[in-house]
Design brief:
This protein has 12 helices and 7 strands. With about 300 residues, it is of the alpha/beta class. It has a 7-stranded mixed β-sheet with strand order 3-2-1-4-5-7-6, sandwiched between helices. Strand 1, helix 4 and strand 2 form a beta-alpha-beta unit. The longest helix has 24 residues. About 35% of the residues are buried.
């Protein structure tokens, strides 16, 4: 097997540039240029600064999980769903996996040109433990060539139901941790709109989503509440926080789930009650199968 040449250590001048730009120690400048985060001249524009800030903040949450799960020489596996241009995957590999010498990252993305570009960039950089697959999150769950187990599942701004598919993937693959930043939740809002008149007559709570803009906002918020309850019901400890300041991104809710094996029956019951209260039992029953969690 052909071995890749080790990366040259950064020169003092490069280290100074990295410090001025607010980059993390050891960050490969050529990688950031290839990702178009840095310009060819090594500059960082405002949009790229915002994007990099989001990825770095997410890295701060993921790095401790990687350190813990890669202990005792374990080759940690990470699936990055809705990978896009794979900013997150490449930076995780560059800052953690590269020097660790073990472990793998799988980037899942539906847009073939982005997958091909990521495959080429990984080959150019010698990131040989990165794989990129041109398929949906749901398809990857059923792919028999994928590892039977993943340690960490990430989904940064996976749109609408792709976040739910990432959760289903994590459950199927017995993930020890899921790190999710949901985006553009539309499925639940659409279901709420279908029976809006009926609910307005039945309960004053329906005023919360009588106007279209409120339907969208309540639908987005309720979607994430249901996801958190479902993860708790399936044996995960869930933390919800902000990824970065709201001035950087409106899609800013970060859900971190750690597997404990303690399935919360109270969360399962609250999930059932919310689905009933909002008239969503039929529309969303497939999203939150609770057959393995008994009602209290």
């Amino acid at each position: 097997m052909k071995k890749n040449k080790p990366a040259k250590p950064a020169t003092p001048a490069q280290q100074d540039v990295a410090a001025q730009l607010g980059l993390r120690p050891g960050q490969n400048l050529e990688l950031l240029k290839a990702l178009h985060i840095l310009t060819r001249e090594g500059k960082l524009n405002q949009d790229s600064r915002r994007k990099l800030k989001q990825v770095y903040h997410l890295y701060q949450f993921i790095a401790p999980l990687l350190e813990e799960l890669s202990a005792n020489d374990h080759p940690v596996t990470l699936a990055d769903h809705g990978a896009g241009k794979s900013y997150l995957g490449f930076i995780l590999y560059d800052l953690f996996f590269k020097n660790l010498g073990r472990g793998s990252i799988y980037g899942i993305e539906t847009r073939a040109p982005l997958v091909q570009a990521s495959q080429q960039l990984a080959a150019d950089l010698g990131f040989d433990r990165m794989q990129f697959l041109n398929m949906s999150v749901a398809e990857s769950t059923q792919a028999d060539f994928m590892p039977a187990q993943f340690d960490i599942v990430t989904a940064l701004h996976a749109c609408d139901t792709a976040t739910d598919d990432a959760i289903a993937f994590g459950l199927e693959k017995h993930a020890q941790a899921l790190v999710l930043v949901p985006c553009c939740q539309a499925e639940l809002a659409a279901a709420m709109r279908q029976n809006k008149a009926l609910h307005l007559a039945r309960t004053p709570l329906a005023e919360l989503w009588r106007h279209p803009i409120h339907t969208r906002e309540i639908g987005s918020h309720l979607t994430n509440v249901l996801r958190c309850l479902y993860l708790e019901a399936c044996g995960y400890q869930v933390t919800v926080t902000e990824l970065v300041g709201w001035e950087h991104s409106m899609k800013n809710e970060l859900i971190i789930a750690r597997y404990t094996g303690q399935k919360k029956r109270s969360s399962a019951q609250r999930l059932r009650e919310l689905l009933e209260q909002f008239g969503l039992q039929t529309a969303l029953a497939h999203r939150y199968p609770l057959s393995g969690v008994a009602a209290p």
